[in-house]
Specification:
The protein is mainly alpha-helical and 101 residues long. It is built from four helices and two strands. It has a two-stranded parallel ribbon with strand order 1-2. The relative contact order is 0.10.
């Protein structure tokens, strides 16, 4: 499995991806596949792992967008059963969010 960017809340969010490997060995395993860290590690860590700041900013932007979309109850609860209805509700909510900002 080839990974370019591995997104997660922290080092522990990798979960089952490399469950048996810990710490720097985990970072080495990910780097071995050509992936870059997207989330900065804890600043108190002895050896800091470099991360892609641009990808981190873009990830944050997407997370905030999903947070705003979830303010709409219909989207947060997946009220619609049909994909086309759900998608149109997401589009309407996105237009309203864009219009307000």
């Amino acid at each position: 499995m080839l990974v370019q960017h591995l997104f997660g809340k922290s080092e522990y969010a990798l979960g089952q991806f490399v469950e048996s490997v810990t710490g720097l060995a985990r970072a080495a395993l990910i780097a071995e596949q050509g992936a870059e860290a997207v989330i900065p590690c804890n600043r108190t860590r002895k050896k800091l792992i470099p991360y892609d700041a641009l990808a981190y900013r873009q990830r944050n932007l997407i997370e905030r967008m999903f947070g705003r979309l979830k303010d709409f109850r219909r989207i947060a609860t997946h009220y619609d059963k049909l994909v086309r209805n759900f998608f149109s509700a997401v589009l309407i909510a996105a237009i309203v969010i864009w219009w307000i900002n």
